[in-house]
Write a structure and sequence with these properties.
By secondary structure, this protein is α/β, with parallel strands linked by helices. It folds into two domains: 187 residues, Alpha-Beta Complex (Spore Coat Polysaccharide Biosynthesis Protein SpsA, Chain A), CATH 3.90.550.10; 241 residues, Spore Coat Polysaccharide Biosynthesis Protein SpsA, Chain A (Alpha-Beta Complex), CATH 3.90.550. The chain is built from 15 helices and 18 strands. Helix 1 links the parallel strand 1 and strand 2. Helix 2 packs across helix 4, helix 5 runs parallel beside helix 7 and helix 14 runs parallel beside helix 15. The protein starts with a strand and ends with a helix.
Length: 485
């Protein structure tokens, strides 16, 4: 078995250590240097290929033209790569044994002279995120790479390498090797909570449009695409004492819960509403803080009997309560509504857009509610025409979220404390239109106690695995639904 290697090339100094590492393996047939800066440096034994971008369709096609060995390695970072002893031999052996279209591995990340474990996760049918972390070393079976490239009929500037992965996955397995086989240099040292919003940063909008096109095409190929045909919602089927209920699940948020409650009770509406606070056995004074509002008859303070509830379970307790209104509206215990008109706008949107779920727009702030980058998160990747499909690619749908209570009571909320809202969005969008509001309705505070503010790699992987699992279940359900039509 032999392998050709394709690596980003900016200068001879930048690639010298990576090339030396690759050449330690007798399996390496040829090394190609991909340059997008017209670098004229000469490297003995290497061929330079001019490209526009590492991630474009044009570049992937140039790689396929030069791919004449059994396997093809694409390195996706310009920084130094250090392969472990016999790493390529191991990757190719597993690729052969598993007949994988792509293999990728756990690895180490070196940053500021510190080396950390960087395990990645197994690829699933629902691993449709364009930012799925394979690490930087991708080893393709050349036969499958060429087969996928032959089907590339759209020229992407940004989504070429994503399109390649999707097309390979249509016919072959993408196999994760649970072994630490190389070290990559990591220059992005931001916390997890800072990275999580990259995909909705307005400056990345052009990228997101291409990723959506590639994913939608993939869904059509595998039978998971849904046409925008939705059930009509009949809002007069049930009688409710309240038109809307804001639901706040809370545990140990003494620093923020009063702000959240005040922002609800200050709402001005032309309908009757209440606030259901589901207090999940707080121990820091949160319970007592909630009770300071007990004189307001709109406040329903619930301490559930079940002591094993996550955020989703607390939502179920609130929605099942007899005092829950026709529309159940989300507010996290450390956030606030942007002004006194939020609740009215949300309820109006249900009727105006005939939807069973509404998602708003929010602004990121620090603890003191001062705006922080990237600022307004509007999730414009949701469109009435294709939102239900693009939802399978993105990592979240936005906030605040609100639901038509009769449907939510049928579906139930997953009893988790992460991803439960995303699971609901996927499920609702399978049959119902999701309404959108692009006014800022919500101030989302980012601080150290947020659930995803600063996660270690193990917890990040657990979260991503669960969301990929949610996507897999939903994708399988949609494929089955299409087959039954």
């Amino acid at each position: 078995m032999k392998i050709n290697c394709f690596i980003p090339f900016q200068s001879s100094r930048q690639v010298e250590n990576t090339i030396a590492s690759l050449r330690e393996s007798i399996l390496v047939n040829h090394i190609y240097l991909l340059t997008d800066n017209n670098c004229n440096d000469k490297i003995d034994g290497c061929e330079v290929i001019e490209i526009d971008s590492l991630r474009s369709t044009a570049t992937i096609k140039k790689i396929a033209e030069k791919a004449d060995t059994a396997y093809t390695l694409i390195y996706t970072k310009p920084d130094e790569l250090r392969l472990g002893m016999f790493a390529l031999e191991r990757m190719l052996q597993i690729a052969k044994d598993s007949n994988a279209g792509l293999v990728y591995a756990d690895h180490y990340q070196a940053s500021d002279e510190e080396k950390k474990n960087s395990p990645v996760i197994a690829y699933q049918k629902g691993s449709l995120r364009d930012d799925f972390n394979f690490g930087s070393v991708l080893v393709y079976k050349t036969e499958e790479l060429k087969k996928a490239v032959a089907k590339m009929d759209t020229a992407y500037k940004f989504a070429g390498i994503y399109d390649l992965r999707l097309k390979v996955s249509q016919h072959s397995d993408l196999v994760h090797i649970n072994e630490y086989l190389y070290t990559e240099v990591e220059n992005d040292t931001r916390k997890s909570g800072e990275k999580v919003f990259d995909y909705v940063d307005p400056k990345n909008r052009e990228v997101q449009i291409e990723m959506e096109l590639a994913c939608t095409d993939h869904l059509k190929k595998i039978g998971g695409y849904l046409a925008p045909q939705f059930k009509k919602v009949e809002f007069d089927k049930s009688d409710f004492e309240y038109e809307a209920s804001v639901i706040i699940p809370v545990r140990n948020r003494i620093r923020t819960i009063k702000d959240a409650i005040k922002s609800v009770l200050n709402q001005k509406t032309n309908f009757k509403f209440n606030l259901i606070v589901v207090d999940n056995y707080s121990t820091d004074g949160t319970t007592e803080a909630i009770d300071t509002f007990a004189s307001d008859e709109r406040l329903v303070h619930i301490i559930p009997q079940n002591k094993e509830l996550g955020i989703g379970g607390c939502w179920n307790a609130g929605v099942a309560n007899a005092k829950c209104g026709k529309f159940a509206v989300q507010l996290d215990s450390d956030d606030v509504y942007s002004d006194e008109n939020t609740l009215q706008k949300i309820v109006d949107a249900f009727y105006e857009q005939n939807c069973a779920m509404v998602v708003g727009t929010y602004m990121l702030t620090d603890f003191d509610m001062k705006i922080i980058p990237p600022g307004i998160i509007d999730h414009k990747e949701w469109t009435p025409e294709n939102g239900c499909n693009n939802a399978l690619r993105i990592n979240g749908l936005g906030a605040p979220r609100a639901f038509y209570t009769p449907v939510l009571r049928e579906i139930k909320v997953p009893n988790t404390s992460y991803g439960e809202d995303y699971a609901l969005g996927l499920y609702f969008s399978r049959e119902y239109q999701i309404g959108r509001i692009y006014d800022v309705l919500y101030l989302c505070r980012r601080w150290d106690d947020n659930s995803d503010a600063s996660l270690d790699i193990v917890k990040m992987n657990a979260h991503n695995t669960y969301k990929d699992r949610i996507r897999t279940w939903e994708l399988e359900a949609r494929i089955a639904l299409n087959k039954s039509k």
